[in-house]
Structures are given as C-alpha cells and as structure tokens.
Amino acid sequence: MNFPAISRRQFLKTTTVAAAGLPLFAAALADPPRRKIGFALCGLGSLSTQQIAPALQQTQYCRLAGIITGTPAKAARWKAQYDLPDHCIYSYETMDRLADNPDIDVVYVVTPNALHAEHTVKAAKAGKHVLTEKPMEVSVAKCQQMIEACQTANRQLAVGYRLHFEPNTLECARLAREKVFGESKMFEGGFGFVIGDPTQWRLNRALAGGGPLMDVGIYVVQAARFVLGEEPLLVSAVATNTDPEKFRDVEESLVWQMKFPSGVLASGSTTYRIGGMNHFKIFGTRGSFGLDSAFGYNGIHGSPSDGPEIQFPQLNQFAAEMDDFAQGILANRPTKVPGEEGLRDVKIMMAIYESARSGKVVGLS
Amino acid sequence: MNFPAISRRQFLKTTTVAAAGLPLFAAALADPPRRKIGFALCGLGSLSTQQIAPALQQTQYCRLAGIITGTPAKAARWKAQYDLPDHCIYSYETMDRLADNPDIDVVYVVTPNALHAEHTVKAAKAGKHVLTEKPMEVSVAKCQQMIEACQTANRQLAVGYRLHFEPNTLECARLAREKVFGESKMFEGGFGFVIGDPTQWRLNRALAGGGPLMDVGIYVVQAARFVLGEEPLLVSAVATNTDPEKFRDVEESLVWQMKFPSGVLASGSTTYRIGGMNHFKIFGTRGSFGLDSAFGYNGIHGSPSDGPEIQFPQLNQFAAEMDDFAQGILANRPTKVPGEEGLRDVKIMMAIYESARSGKVVGLS
After folding, report:
1. Would the CB atoms of A285 and B273 count as touching at under 8 Å?
2. A268: which chain B residues are within 8 Å (Cβ-Cβ)?
3. Which ipTM did the prediction report?
4. Residues with Cβ within 8 Å of residue B82, at least 6 apart in sequence
5. Fold of A33-162+320-327+330-334
6. What is the pLDDT of residue B9?
7. CB contact under 8 A, B188 and A241
8. Which CATH superfamily is domain A167-314+343-363 in?
9. Nearest Cα residue in chain B from A234
C-alpha cells in the first residue's frame, strides 16, 4: 500500500530515532506494512479519548477498527468522530461477538484495573490478541488467569508499558547495561500527581486495587527493573494518609525500598497528593544518570553527572507501543512486553502493600 | 581589639550574609568580641588538620589555644605550625590537667566516634565546655553520659552540626516553615562517598559504631529533621553488602524510610561505595525545593521547581559553628546545637540499624 503524505512525513521523522539505533524503526524502514492491524479500544475513558485514539492516527501498522463501551452516548460520539460501522461497536456484554469480526485483530483493554482480566479473557475467547493497560490487574491470580486465557486461545498478550519504546528510557537501560557510569549501586525514583475528582474509580480499591502505587508508582518499579535489568529480592514499605476522608479506600502516599541480587538498593516514592515528582536516578561507581521528568507523555530528559544530556527526540509512545505489537503479530514474533512482565510488577506491588500493612520486609520468590 | 586587615575583609564579606537575615552575623556587627574563646582540638586527624584548624584562623571569637593528641609527632608538628606553648599540648592521658589551663575554654572532640564520650567526660570534668563532632557517639547510653557529665560540670555541650549555620540550608528550613512551596509531603535525600584505606577506623564497628549511616547518612537524617522541623515516628531500613571483605564490620550501603507526625514520608540513602550522591529534596503541595549538592564544605546550591535559585554565598561552616558556640559562651546563652540534638540523631540511627537487622519497622518514642 502507499503511504499518504502525512504518514510519510511522520515516517521520515522517525528515521532520526532509527539512526540513533532503535531496532523498532530500523525494521520499519526495511519492511513497510502489508496490512494494518485492526484495534478495538475497550473502555473509552480519558486515556482512550485523549491519548490512544489520537495515537492510533499516528501509527503505521494499526488502525482503529472498533470500540467496546458500556456507555451508548460514547458509542455514538466515537462512531461519528471515527466513521465506525455499526458492526464494529460493542458493549461489554456483546464482546463474544468479536469472534465474528475479522476486521478486529487486537483488543486494547483500557478499563479500570480490576476489569482487565474479565475483558482480556472475553477478547481471547473471541480469538483476539490483547494489549492491556497497566497495572495488568489487581491480583497475581487474575494476571495468571489472563496469561492462561491467551495461551489457551493461542493469542498474544501484551501490557501497555509505553516507556519500553521511549528512546530516552532505552538510552538509560543502555547506560546501565554497558556500565557507562560504572556498576549501578543505588536507585532513587518517584512519581506522583494530585488526584482530582474524589468519586473516580482510581480511589476505589475494588476497581483500582490500590492507590498511587498501582497507578503511577508502577512506573518507578518498572524503571528500576527495566533499567537495572534485574528483579528485586525483597521489598519494604511505609504508607501515609493525611486525608482519610478522600483516601478512605487506598493509600495517599507510599515509600518503598527494593534490594536487588547485584546489591543495588532502590528507594521509590509515590503519591496522589503532589505533582512535580517524576524522576529516577541511578548512582553508579563512575557517576549518576537518569531522567527528570521521566514518566510523562513528553518532556522526558536527563542530565547525567557528566557527558552529554539525555535528550532523544520525543515520540508518541502509544503509537510506538501499538506499532510494535502490530509488527509482532504480522511477523509472528512475541511481544517485548508480555503478560509475564505485567505479572512481575503486580507481584512486587502486592509485596509492597503486604510490607506496608505488616511493617515487615517481604521477600519475593 | 582591632581587626587585622585580612579579618576585616573577611568580616565585611560576611555582612552580605548578615544582610540576608542571618542573626549570627547581624550580632557580630553589633558586638565585636571582648576576648577570644580558646579552643583545644582533641584528635588531630584529617578533619582537624584540613578543616578545623584552618577554620579557626577565620573565626572572630575563637583561637587555637591547645591540642590533645596521642601522637607525639603530630604534637611537634602542630606546636611548630601554630606556635603553641608546651603547657597547651596534652595527651589523652593528661587531659585532667586541662583544669589548670585558663587559656582553654572549649575542647573540640574530633576523635573516632566511640571515643567522644570518654573525651567529653574528661573535658567536662576539667571544667571545659565541649563541642563534639557528629555522630555524637555510638550508643544512646553514651550520649546520655555526655549530656550528664556536662550538666554536672555546668558546662555547655554542642554537637558539630555545621549545616545549622549554612545559609542555603537555613533558607530551605525557612521555605519549609513558611510553606513557600505549600505543605511538605515527601522528602528524598542521599549522601555517600567512596571510602579509601580499608584499615581506617571508619570501617571498624567498635570505633565507628556503624558504616556510612553514622558517618554521612546522619546528614540526611539531620536535613529531614532540621528542614521539616519535626521528629520521625518510625523508621524502616534495608542494608546491602557487595564487598564483604572490605565491609566485614559495617554496612556498605543502606536505604531507610521515616514517617513524620505531619504525614511526610522520607526516603534516605547512604553508601561508602559511590560518590556523587549528595542531595535532598522536599516535595510540597505547591512545588519542590532542596539542595544538590547539599552537605559539602562548599558548592551548596539548590534549584527549586520555580522561583529563584537557592545560592547564598558559601561561608566557612566550621568557623561559623565555632563562632556561634563561642558567642553563646561569652553571652551565657545556650548553644543552638545541644547534646540533646545529637542524642536524637543517634536514637534514630540505632532504630534504623535495628530495622535493617530485624526486617521490621521500628517505632521511635
């Protein structure tokens, strides 16, 4: 197929990043798509509306092929905006009919955390690949259920770790792997924001599974694991709550520590009370490096203790994540961010909560 | 008395700081010293040699009046360099004779941590005021012994918290107290350096009482308490050791958490394995502020999330600390950094070690 002019410009822009050594875009240069993978967005909240649907327009290998929503008014709005045919619009109750729709290859699950398993299992049973937002689910058992459902259906399961495709984050992983700043010894990171509407699902334990740790602290857990390239042996945590009315169901703020097999000690912080905390730093035997800010959709940047700034061009992380999943499906190669990766984070976060509750260090198997 | 030209320049330089609102130097302008307080340095290691003795030359209210050392070669060298009379040179065994020397008002204890109590008690019994380096001692009981000895002798006891006199640190305490960045919610800080000679006393638990926490982590504990202006309720800690041969007696690195009554959560890091970790930051409801670097003898500076840089002129912190103690003695007012302040840090650090050993949160009374 031919690229429309806008896509070609987009494509050429990404070659700058490819030149910096990112295999994703190098592959894109060599192998333009034969067909676009059809994505159905499951859950049409603000993330789908403001980030994922616009990002789909910037992909090379994907297209918006359907929606799944419990809100008829949203269905009507999206149908009009994206020119969707009626047979590509589903409710959560009619998801089994996805099996009859060859235009849809992937269901992208963007519902509240505690519904990811239900919607993933339905999509897998209908023969669809699944990309689910993080955190993968609210318990280890539900993550395992998702992995099993996709294995049984012989479909791929990916978790929306957009920063695995973000060039500044990848550069930090390279700096750690190649020991550019020596052996990593200490890690410090934090991510928080001021939560608004007190009635939203993020403040409801049954739907969110926890507070800021599940929602944004997970980025700090991920950054430590992804950049250091190893898995924590144990965690220890302390939580706080200065507004018990607003935070009656989930923690307001939490700090935790992780010890890694190499001996690295990590400190993490997360909160729903303040913004401006959005960073990680690794202290090595020959200097320090990291990103500040680190976890947003743009503005990612780092000032190492010496050497050049870390400032690769920003890209649309959701587009990169979806394109990579689509390319994997087209090429029959496994995703870089499989369900097992999401499960590991949930295991760690559950251990962090157990430690905050018990006041004891919790080991990880 | 008249100021020599060099001191007058020094004096005028400090008026810049006085103009920034520091009462220490404002007082200096109003009240030039009638006589200089005589300091005897007890322990002539690198801190005395490279920092404290040169700093004494920059004070307005103090003079080097004697030395106490176990090494005759050091005694000879210092006697020559500082033109000290024989009767002002003591060994640890002859400290009781300090009682007969009216030229010496203060003993500044700069010996290894586990000797501070012994030397403080001897000095107090000889009728001298005591300024002791931090950490105050290696146990709560020994700190209490020091406080009691000085109370019994009716002498002042101060701990060498030089940053209580450092203008950038004082500015951070003001920013927190006046809630310039809103209510403080999270604190992050770390201090480490690469320790050299494996035979030095800092790696010997009997003399040091612990590893980097006692030596430099104490600055992070202090920064949190001093800037936030409150005392932690509980601590939790994890230690690591990747070089058991070198660190056979004390921890190599340690991370800890503190929870404060206001709900602030603090993360601290300390290590003998890497340099370049020398910072603290407070995240408030309207932005963040702190210092990086934060704890050195110079180069202290901070970049808040908005507003002007924190960059008051550097001063000689040891000179400021000694001048303040001397002024207090002359004016018969209590020191700003009494033994009780040192005792609190030791209590907290002992709780941190207990948590690292037990794997449990430790409460503080």
Report:
1. yes
2. 267
3. 0.90
4. B53, B64
5. Rossmann fold (3.40.50)
6. 35
7. no
8. Dihydrodipicolinate Reductase; domain 2 (3.30.360.10)
9. B238
